Structure formats: C-alpha cells, structure tokens
Amino acid sequence: MVDVKLIETEEEYNEALARLDVLFDAPVGSQEAKEAEVLALLVNQYEEVHYPIEEPSPEDYARIRMEESGLRDDT
Predict the structure, then answer these.
(1) Which residues contact 35 (CB under 8 A, 6 or more apart)?
(2) Given this model, what pLDDT does residue 75 score?
(3) CA 6, CA 71: separation in Å to the nearest integer?
C-alpha cells in the first residue's frame, strides 16, 4: 500500500489518478480495494478545491431538465 496523505500538488493528483487506474478492478474487500477507496476520497477532496463545479442557475437547471424530459423551449 502506498503512503496515504493529502494530495497537495497537480503531480500528486496525477499520480493518484494513475494508481486508481491500476486499482480499478481490485477484488472487493482486498487491500487494493481499500487503498482505492481512500485514494478516491483524496482525489475527490483535491478536485473539489481545485476543479469546483458550479451549480447551474435556475434557468440553466430548468433548461437541462426540459432537455432530459424531451421538452422543447420554443421561445
């Protein structure tokens, strides 16, 4: 298992993503699967800080829901 610590740099982030790719199909309950779970949490935390996704405006949200429902906006 790799040393677990917060991801602080883009390089560490990329290394964590590469490691997750290797661990992706680890058997459930294995040490590798547990490592993947921890890495996924650390990657998620890094992404929330460095790559935040803004909530859509109410208008954009309504437009998205209409598209998903197959409705059209003919205005």
Answers:
(1) 1, 2, 4, 19, 23, 26
(2) 58
(3) 44
- Over 7-64, what HEC string results? CCCHHHHHHHHHHHHHHCCCCCCCHHHHHHHHHHHHHHHHHHHHCCCCCCCHHHHHHH
**Per-residue model confidence as pLDDT tens digits over 42-58:** 999 999 999 999 898 99
The domain limits of the chain are 10-68
Is the pTM above the cut of 0.85? no
Looking at residue 25, what is its pLDDT?
Answer: 92
* Tokens standing for residue 56: 């859509």
